[in-house]
């Protein structure tokens, strides 16, 4: 936890675990997630993953996901504000609204009446964004893996959590330029 002017930065680092209590992923997958918070109704988030060696299989799935139980509509926009995709009546099961290697500039998730969340300034190395069973996924790997051993793959976004924030809330900035340390200490790992 670091205070940086009017911004509070929270950073979490570690190694992903398998299904068992003490099981580590094989090959090991290191991660970091950093949040930058201030007094606005927005926050910045950056994250990254890195493997120490190539996966045995050429196919992999590695993703962040955000539960969105009330989402009913979505909109994806490009950098010029043009609608890339939009939809409603999100299905209870199965993937929908996949981007497949296209990272929109802005994503708006809504319930029946208002904006629940707006994701702005999306950047990084992702293979897919999609909704599935009312969860929003940002996938680093989705099918053919793009992981190169010992190289960080990162993703960053500014999140507005109310419709007011989407219309002018001053968001905190990211740590310049998605700084990643290769010497993460794993106490006890």
Largest sheet: 9 strands, antiparallel
Beta-strand percentage range: over 45%
Give the uncertain stretches in residue-range form: 164-169, 175-189
Gap between N and C termini, in Å?
21 Å
* Number of beta strands: 13
Q: Which structural class do you get from the secondary structure elements?
A: mainly beta
Radius of gyration: 17 Å
Q: Helicity level, as a percent range?
A: under 10%
Helix and strand succession?
EEEEEEEEEEEEEH
**Sequence of strands across the biggest β-sheet:** 1-2-3-4-13-10-9-6-7
Number of helices: 1
The mean pLDDT is: 80
Q: Estimate the global geometry from the Cα principal axes.
A: globular
Q: What keywords describe this structure?
A:
189 residues; 9-stranded antiparallel β-sheet; mainly beta; 4-stranded antiparallel β-sheet
Map the helices and strands:
Layout: E1 2-4, E2 7-15, E3 29-37, E4 42-51, E5 59-67, E6 73-77, E7 83-88, E8 95-96, E9 106-110, E10 115-124, E11 128-132, E12 135-144, E13 153-160, H1 163-166
Antiparallel strand pairs: 1-2, 2-3, 3-4, 4-13, 5-12, 6-7, 6-9, 8-11, 9-10, 10-13, 11-12
How do you describe this structure in short?
The chain is an all-beta fold and 189 residues long.
Overview of the molecule:
The protein has 189 residues and is mainly beta. It contains one helix and 13 strands. A nine-stranded antiparallel β-sheet has the order 1-2-3-4-13-10-9-6-7. A four-stranded antiparallel β-sheet has the order 5-12-11-8, with no helix packed on it. Strand 1 (2-4) and strand 2 form a beta hairpin.
